[in-house]
Amino acid sequence: MSYNTFGRVFRFTTWGESHGPALGAVVDGCPPGLALSEADIQPFLDKRRPGTSRFTTQRQEPDQVRILSGVFEGRTTGTPIALHIDNVDQRSKDYSEVAQAYRPGHADYAYDAKYGFRDYRGGGRSSARETAARVAAGAVARLVIPEVKIAAWVEAIGGDAIFYSRFDEEEIARNPFFCPDAQAASRWERKVDEARKAGSSLGATVTCQASGVPAGWGAPLYAKLDSELAAAMMSINAVKGVEIGDGFAAALATGEGNADPMRPGADGPQFLANHAGGIAGGISTGQPIWVRTAFKPTSSILTPVETITREGEATEIRTKGRHDPCVGIRGAPVVEAMMALVLADQKLLHRAQTGR
Amino acid sequence: MSYNTFGRVFRFTTWGESHGPALGAVVDGCPPGLALSEADIQPFLDKRRPGTSRFTTQRQEPDQVRILSGVFEGRTTGTPIALHIDNVDQRSKDYSEVAQAYRPGHADYAYDAKYGFRDYRGGGRSSARETAARVAAGAVARLVIPEVKIAAWVEAIGGDAIFYSRFDEEEIARNPFFCPDAQAASRWERKVDEARKAGSSLGATVTCQASGVPAGWGAPLYAKLDSELAAAMMSINAVKGVEIGDGFAAALATGEGNADPMRPGADGPQFLANHAGGIAGGISTGQPIWVRTAFKPTSSILTPVETITREGEATEIRTKGRHDPCVGIRGAPVVEAMMALVLADQKLLHRAQTGR
Amino acid sequence: MSYNTFGRVFRFTTWGESHGPALGAVVDGCPPGLALSEADIQPFLDKRRPGTSRFTTQRQEPDQVRILSGVFEGRTTGTPIALHIDNVDQRSKDYSEVAQAYRPGHADYAYDAKYGFRDYRGGGRSSARETAARVAAGAVARLVIPEVKIAAWVEAIGGDAIFYSRFDEEEIARNPFFCPDAQAASRWERKVDEARKAGSSLGATVTCQASGVPAGWGAPLYAKLDSELAAAMMSINAVKGVEIGDGFAAALATGEGNADPMRPGADGPQFLANHAGGIAGGISTGQPIWVRTAFKPTSSILTPVETITREGEATEIRTKGRHDPCVGIRGAPVVEAMMALVLADQKLLHRAQTGR
Amino acid sequence: MSYNTFGRVFRFTTWGESHGPALGAVVDGCPPGLALSEADIQPFLDKRRPGTSRFTTQRQEPDQVRILSGVFEGRTTGTPIALHIDNVDQRSKDYSEVAQAYRPGHADYAYDAKYGFRDYRGGGRSSARETAARVAAGAVARLVIPEVKIAAWVEAIGGDAIFYSRFDEEEIARNPFFCPDAQAASRWERKVDEARKAGSSLGATVTCQASGVPAGWGAPLYAKLDSELAAAMMSINAVKGVEIGDGFAAALATGEGNADPMRPGADGPQFLANHAGGIAGGISTGQPIWVRTAFKPTSSILTPVETITREGEATEIRTKGRHDPCVGIRGAPVVEAMMALVLADQKLLHRAQTGR
Predict the structure, then answer these.
(1) Is C87 helix (H, G, I), strand (E, B) or coil?
(2) Measured between beta carbons, which residues in chain C are less than 8 angstroms from residue A30?
(3) Which of B305, C81, D95, D173 is the most buried (most CB within 10 A)?
(4) pLDDT, tens digit, 9 for 90 and up, residues A60-99
(5) Is the ipTM of this complex over 0.95?
């Protein structure tokens, strides 16, 4: 079942395909009275926008957002906010090969198995273009949680990781990789260039931190803050793994090593560590929330891969056209958006139940 | 907000605390006409049951399930199925220390921050006892997906991993660790014993495979099969990471290395690899589904840890009482249950939309 | 699809059949810290309880409620509240006739058509006994909205209506009909007795007023306060119509006649009329909320009615056994409960979005 | 909380205000492979369109719908279908009076109370213009239930009702009142003209029948078919009452008079009456489904009405501008749309649970 809506009380619905006329999001449940205009959204879309460096797809999309409802005299009214982005650069192309054969690693075969056919132009609904709608919705979500500061960065490309000793948050915006370590960024330049020229692709990990989240957001079990974040991140195309705090490293630890001791602090407890990533028992502790995501390498590569046609016959396929050599790079603004969307929802849910 | 319900059309709601009189689940949306009695559920509860070896908590709970509604003349009626499990061994104990000071790594502080107070007896709602209700519900879910075979096993304890070359599915039921590698199981015996005697605890990873899932279950984005599985697994107490297929290893790969080439097969495509873990574009491909989860070490340890009291004063706490030295071990049946619950829901959702 | 859960953030799930061992409700999303014990719930169950006068079914059910979770030291914890009511008087009876032939007006045929079979003992899930679970949940909901006063009464039985000029709220609790007009109550005594002795049954209308609801609860469209109330009331067994404010009489009016003019008041506007029933544009106005419901006559009658067997052959059926001669009478406490459940949910939703 | 989404598995979300640039709907969960183009939707919008006779508002809106996603090569893909309708005739007007004073009967005061302010241009979100989006979504829903035939008609205007002895379904499309009784239509012409000229308005009842619904759609309680229909109809602006089958007349009946006896029929049971309106125990019986709705008179009238300003001072208001003298007339296509939307959802839910 399709279910293109995410969230419980702050909810958004996205629609649109890679090569359709437009795509968009409807944001529902937004608090009234927030100052909102296109200028609050556009900077986030610009960060995610393709074609801004040679390290992303060369598709040229201005990704200009228009607000079609839910805002009056510059403020949100509390009614649904429709966000609309035109597709501009749907380059005419011969799709006959993709229409006939399944690209391994892509959604082609699974879509056909589910729906009986598919929109094969540029991946249709499974294209990373859909994430523009999330980023737009995420910009609205940020207005709901002004107390929270969210930053995501690429932590590693193809296994080449940053050093946290060289972490510089300012640096993230200075290079085309959302990389907080200037040295890593310059290494990645060569690395991604090589992959791009070879028609290959690289995986990446993206880490996101949200600070300023007060203690108390979340819930004990099926709406645990970590469960919601895991669903949100795993809903991003190409994400194959999610960690909260120490994540898989926690499975290597002992109880002593994994404890986050507390001391009296000026303003609530002072934690001596944050193995838990800011969440205990599904509820925020007031520490920064840490989420790490694994992006697989783009499946679109120039090397021919064995596959089958729709009729079930053996063939080979190479994916020509415009693609991200490392889709994880542009994943950083998308991860930020999903973090904002989950936290906005959880803030309102917490307020619903407790009045705080 | 609480939200103790999981699922979209096959849904279950759990209730109950560690030291309350009982706990249970209500399963809603179950197809009618399925043969169901307590005997279909009890074996799964028995696998998860505490007190069966020295490697788990010594709390003695028979975990006898009763079906209170939704079954008539041995078959499901299509109306809600109430599952009821009495708590038997709520040993009387002095909780004054836990009531006054926050156990680091536990949900104590977060619950107080959210709700203003908490049921401190044995962890209340955040106790792993809640998972008995899920396992009972999961047993019902299995009846909805007879075509699927689900198996979960512990893959590593404290970083000591099995060898897949020695994988023997039969072995899983033969040792108290749900371990498919007999040599690893014997190593773990010593390892967990040491931790137990030292009053320490160990993390673990649990892997789950579901085979027999036909191609087509799932959805493109926010109800992606992998997104649902991530939410389900991360909703289990102590889980801090989730991977689908290669997971974080995919972030190290190139597009060539990560491809799952296809050849014509007798019955749909034959895949030459399964890096994707049986899911592409959020939809099952017909390959086995692989999910890996990271369980942190139990936070209850005998070593004193710095903490604060409810009044914000510095203190130390050691957690006495009955605890699992490695909560990941009993996580295996819970992971299986969550896999079954997600797949049953997705099967019905797929049927809703496509009629297949 | 079953969907035995109602509500958006304050949610409840009911389970149980007429002749099963027990029935119950799980209330989720309740604010923490509310004082709650069985004594807060029992009085409402006692009002709905069968067998208290000769005007209701003679089934003897003590309807003793037990709280199995979600309350600690006398206060709600914010986690799910399990409410449990044992069935006591499932009189052994020969159901072979009901099992074989469909009772017209009952759910028998429809259930068989949907599920392929049914629990025919006393109506199974479609029995009015299910409403005990709602009434218990409704008692919890009342604690969430202490600012609201809810009263429901029977307005007419078999077309014999009260006079509002004789309306006396105190009177409602003094007679077995929840009738606010003493004269009507004494007429109904004879009327219902006649129907009962004749093995016939009577329809009724039940009206409910909620005062103290502040302006602002509800939403513009699909979660309109009136839409939620309509769904809630129509979900009660035997209800076939719902009106808000003037309801169908508004269809006879002109715009002038239907206006609710406003004047400045001490505390917000003073309304000169309440044709709207306290709701405009889906949102409460601060005036009392009025809802009217139509209960059909109990379908269980002694007069033989033409029907068919499960095998499709012609037959006749008379419904012996214990039945309410006018099921609308005991509908009054159920209507009150549904009003409370909707308003509690809407209060929390309003707080989620607006922080008020 | 806003919740502008309706439905459980076949879901739609609407957005847009009376005087914004556009309005629309996103339809999610639609089965794949259905033939769909704008031409399947436009005729239903044309029926609802304003300005086609002097009996409706004179606002000129072409209501041209565009499909922006979810359709490929003329067939639905199973992904979300975005429907877009531009607003064209937002006549510039002085709204200062409406901005300052609350129109009695309108949502003005309630919106301000909830949100702190409101989009006062033409009623904003509370305008009947929103129903265009529902009608567009409803046209998609009809494709999901080709076995069902839906017809709605105006049954009475200002208390002047049709005679069912003169019911002619063909007649409905022949007059501007969706009236199946030619004589009533000619009476209404004069009646509505008088109201229009007097600057007054009239209430109406609209009845809808759905035939061809197989037995078995729906659910026992909170997702009862009648409960869903009641919510759907009551979500339409200006609706104040909903009846299923005999509705409030059932409250006047005896059990004998209200029975729907059955006889063996060629194809399932033959019912001798349909007091139940095609629904028993929340589940369809195979008989035609009957729903009746009450539309209040338009609150916009030329007669001055006492009211207050935003500052709480006494004033009077007359609503100038373009309005429907009887908003119930154009309610007929909207009621049809909501019927289709509920039934499509219920069909898929039934299929999910039972596989049929």
Answers:
(1) coil
(2) 353
(3) C81
(4) 889 999 999 999 999 999 999 999 999 998 766 778 888 8
(5) yes
